[in-house]
Structure formats: structure tokens, C-alpha cells
Amino acid sequence: MDIKQIQDLIRFVSKSGVNEVSIEQQDFKITIKTNQVQTVVNATIPAVQQQLIATPVETVAHAPQPVAKPVEDTSKYITIKSPMIGTFYRSASPDKPLFVNVGDEISEGSVLCIIEAMKLFNEIEAEISGRIVKVLVDNASPVEYDQPLFLVEPK
User: Fold this and answer.
1) What is the Cα–Cα distance from 132 to 90, expressed in whole angstroms?
2) Burial 50-84 (b: 16+ CB within 10 A, else e)
3) What confidence score (pLDDT) does residue 26 get?
4) pLDDT below 50 — which residues of the chain?
5) What are the pLDDT digits (tens) for 12-34?
6) Cα angle 126, 155, 139; round to 5
7) What distance in Å separates the CA atoms of residue 149 and residue 78, rounded to the nearest whole number?
């Protein structure tokens, strides 16, 4: 028996619903087992339950609606995006302080983070002045081109 025949046999066993098949020939023996659990339930449903099953829309219609969270208005903020693909770092090294924190005032040209791409560490500088409202990426996380990194409230 070659590999193609064994693969065909495995497909056949999985489709047939059989739990185990054993084949023994002169020079080899193969056993294929599946983990399928077959459950047969024989039950009669009373007329009242059949009526409930026939009208599931009525029971679903009265379900409570989930409460939506209030959406934060970010339209007044400017998003600083990644200019490249790489790994985002908030500090020059693990033992150095972070370049910026939430609430820090930044000015045009100040370093916000480093993005490492192909073993080159690129300092990302602010193009606007303002206050850091939110850091959108975790330290040492991969980032994509044009992925939002920071939310800044402009001055």
C-alpha cells in the first residue's frame, strides 16, 4: 500500500463516520481511529414544546438589548502615524526613560519613539506641537506603515 492509498483510506474513514478501521496484509498492518463521538437521541417532544420550537422569534424578540459603551470623541486630536514598517520602541533602551508619556507636552521636532527596521533604529519626530493624549501601541510591538501610534491634542 503506498502513501496515496493510505491518504484515500483516511479520507474515506473520516467521511464514513466509522470510528476505527484495521487492515492487515502480508508485510504490514494499519489501524485508523477517529475521535468522532456519535450520539443518538430518541425522544418525543410534547405538543407544547413543539409549539415553542416552531416560534423561536417570539422568545428572541423579548431579549434585553446590550448597553452600548459611549464612544470617545477623538475628532479634535491629531493622529501621529508610523512612517514605516518595523518594531516600535518607546525608549532608546530598556534602562533609559521613555521618550514621551501621556500628558507630556511635545514640540515640533521632539523625538516620540524609535522604529527599528532591518537593524536600523529610526527616531520618529513630532511634526506638530501639542500634548500626548494616548499611546496607541505597546512597547516592542510590530507596527505597519501608516499605523496610528499616538493621539495628540494640538496647541
Assistant:
1) 13
2) eeeeeeeeeeeeeeeeeeeeeeeeeeebbebebeb
3) 76
4) 38-45, 48-50, 52-53, 55-61
5) 777 777 777 777 777 777 777 76
6) 40
7) 11
Domain positions in the chain are 3-33, 78-154
Amino acid letter, residue 49: Q
Distance (Å) of CA 69 to CA 65, 66, 72, 77, 91: 13, 9, 9, 20, 33
Model pLDDT, residue 86: 95
pTM metric for this prediction: 0.53
Q: For residue 128, give the C-alpha cell.
A: 506638530
* β-bridge mates for residue 22, sequence order: 31
- pLDDT at 153 (0 to 100): 94
Per DSSP, the residues of 126-153 read -SS-EEEEEE-S-TTEEE-TT-EEEEEE
Domain at 78-154: CATH architecture: Beta Barrel (2.40)
Residue for cell digits 495628540? 152
